[in-house]
Amino acid sequence: MNTTTLSSLPATAPAPARGLSLKALPVLLGFLVLALLPLGLTGFYVELTMKIMILALFALSLELLVGQTGLVAFGHAGFFGIGAYVAALLTPQSGPASLWWLLPAAMGAAGLYALAVGALSLRTKGVYFIMITLAFAQMAYFVFHDTPVGGGSDGIYLYFKPEVLLGEVRLLDLDAGPTFYYFVLGCLVATFTLLALLLRSRFGRALAGIKANEQRMRAAGFATYPYKLGAFVLSAMLAGLAGFLYALKDGFVNPEILSWHQSGAVLLMIILGGLGHLRGALLGALAFTLLQELYQSEAIFGTFAKHWQLSLGLTIIAFVALLPHGLIGLLQRKGDK
């Protein structure tokens, strides 16, 4: 590890934010609201909230790569899908698997694939990096789509959620009541906290320096490649966690969750929320999902609801044009960056 001091990092690398507690307050209140929601909501609204939380976790994973490191990837759905398929393929048809090994297996598989992809793709830059990450994601897509590994184009069902056992004692059953909802919420809170702490560490400041001026970082004596590879693998593992939760929620996975459409959707989420902000990833996932549900509603839009992609696309264009800093710009004080 390079022994260059932190003072040699580019001036544009952010120091720990002042007023952190004030900035964290809306996030803490949001998590509190999410914790209380199952007490007043049931059925569709709880399922929708879980979907938003899982997509928010997925968006956070890409925010680490794009918003914090400056590596625009267009194949993140590959890691999301690998996490989902590992959960489905390793869960027995006769009963629940143990969460102790199933969750690490899903995240580890996504991380191992990212290690191979990153080792090659991070040697390129710009549009070449974008296209290589897309190519590797499409390779994973066609493996599951064109082979019987995961049921082909029909996908595969997952009939049991995992459980946590200590000897003969069941400590956690994700099929019991609202347990899975709070497990998803716990994963989201843990991921947000992990990334918030990481970005204020030496590693996070190095990533900020790479985003601002990688050439200057190298001139300061930093080997930037290991930092970028570390961020790439961690980002993929978090995407694998989101895919794992997605598979457990729906009980079904198919190759479409690895397609470039999914990679584009999560990229739109962090752009909509505001690049460079963890809170922006949360806002973007919330806004994107609610807009999608709104435009798909036949009760509101009638037969035009089947053209919801057009309405959603026009809305996102309007948001980007009117809010160049994303939705997070609405929450920031004037002049606050």
TrEMBL record:
The chain crosses the membrane at residues 24-46, 53-79, 99-120, 127-144, 180-199, 225-246, 266-291, 312-331. It is found in: Cell membrane. InterPro entries: ABC_transp_permease, LivM-like. CDD domains: TM_PBP1_LivM_like. Keywords: Cell membrane, Membrane, Transmembrane, Transmembrane helix. One of its GO terms (molecular function) is branched-chain amino acid transmembrane transporter activity. It holds the Pfam family BPD_transp_2. Coiled coil: none annotated. One of its GO terms (cellular component) is plasma membrane. It is a multi-pass membrane protein. PANTHER family: ABC TRANSPORTER ATP-BINDING PROTEIN, HIGH-AFFINITY BRANCHED-CHAIN AMINO ACID TRANSPORT SYSTEM PERMEASE. This is Branched-chain amino acid ABC transporter permease.
